């Protein structure tokens, strides 16, 4: 019975996240609290020998979701290793992103015909600690938060959205930078994502992440657009860059 309930929970997580991405993007989930399928040995070797059980479960669930995304695209499942900068290495011809937290894992992937970069992030729907807000949010973002009924929750949305946008840009720039490197405009808009009868969605919206400095090939003022959804105990954020025709 527990496995059935966990499978249902994972399906609800997928229903929450699926509308945030384009139709060409495969979106798959796995529940770390269930018993995720074992990763490939080469994937498991990427983990520290001292990794705790929680880390191992989340890692396995993320890789299982990624394997399901490959299968959904009609591709043979391959290992996803970790590069020298700790980012996942997707097979040639695939663009993807993975995220996991205590209660959920998600992977998104596309063959890239119409999208050149992706980023996804999942966080537990809990307020961001007050002491972290100045580290995560720029002054304009903090000013926006001050007008919200639940500033801690929306600070977590900003945190998650920056994570998703960062992953998206990294595919092209291969550069690290801090939270000050992007400034977000957040719009609360329940029409931003189609609601699903299979997930309890409490709030949706859009965000626009603006580069505050040059990160080649991005220049100051360039933007990455994204969407977010809150529901099922999660904050889910999605960023994608369409391919320029």
Automatic annotation (TrEMBL):
GO terms for cellular component: enterobactin synthetase complex; plasma membrane. Pathway: Siderophore biosynthesis; enterobactin biosynthesis. Keywords: Enterobactin biosynthesis, Magnesium, Metal-binding, Transferase. Residues 118-195 form the 4'-phosphopantetheinyl transferase domain. The keyword Glycoprotein does not apply. One of its GO terms (molecular function) is magnesium ion binding. CoA binds at residues 55, 63, 99-100, 121, 163, 167. Residues 49-109 form the 4'-phosphopantetheinyl transferase N-terminal domain. One of its GO terms (biological process) is enterobactin biosynthetic process. Its cofactor is Mg(2+). The keyword Transmembrane does not apply. Pfam families: 4PPT_N (PF17837), ACPS (PF01648). Mg(2+) binds at residues 121, 123. It catalyses: apo-[aryl-carrier protein] + CoA = holo-[aryl-carrier protein] + adenosine 3',5'-bisphosphate + H(+); apo-[peptidyl-carrier protein] + CoA = holo-[peptidyl-carrier protein] + adenosine 3',5'-bisphosphate + H(+). EntB, EntD, EntE, and EntF form a multienzyme complex called enterobactin synthase. PANTHER family: ENTEROBACTIN SYNTHASE COMPONENT D (PTHR38096:SF1). Belongs to the P-Pant transferase superfamily. EntD family. Involved in the biosynthesis of the siderophore enterobactin (enterochelin), which is a macrocyclic trimeric lactone of N-(2,3-dihydroxybenzoyl)-serine. The serine trilactone serves as a scaffolding for the three catechol functionalities that provide hexadentate coordination for the tightly ligated iron(2+) atoms. This is Enterobactin synthase component D. It comes from Phaeobacter italicus.
């Amino acid at each position: 019975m527990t496995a059935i309930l966990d499978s249902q929970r994972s399906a609800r997580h997928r229903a929450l996240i699926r509308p945030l991405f384009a139709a060409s993007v495969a979106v798959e989930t796995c529940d770390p609290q269930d018993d995720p399928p074992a990763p490939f040995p080469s994937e498991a070797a990427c983990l520290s020998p001292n990794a705790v059980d929680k880390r191992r479960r989340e890692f396995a669930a993320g890789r299982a979701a990624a394997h399901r995304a490959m299968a959904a695209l009609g591709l043979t499942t391959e290992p996803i290793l970790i590069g020298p900068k700790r980012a996942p290495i997707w097979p040639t011809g695939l663009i993807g992103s993975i995220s996991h937290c205590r209660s959920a894992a998600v992977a998104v992937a596309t063959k890239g015909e119409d999208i050149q970069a992706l980023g996804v992030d999942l966080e537990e729907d809990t307020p961001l600690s007050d002491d972290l807000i100045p580290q995560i949010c720029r002054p304009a973002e903090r000013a926006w938060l001050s007008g919200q009924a639940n500033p801690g929750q929306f600070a977590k949305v900003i945190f998650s959205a920056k994570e998703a946008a960062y992953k998206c840009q990294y595919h092209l720039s291969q550069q690290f930078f801090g939270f000050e490197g992007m400034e977000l405009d957040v719009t609360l808009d329940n029409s931003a994502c189609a609601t699903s009868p299979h997930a309890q969605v409490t709030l949706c919206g859009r965000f626009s992440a603006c580069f505050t400095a040059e990160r080649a090939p991005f220049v100051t003022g360039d933007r990455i657009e994204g969407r977010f959804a809150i529901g099922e105990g999660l904050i889910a954020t999605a960023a994608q860059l369409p391919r320029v025709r």
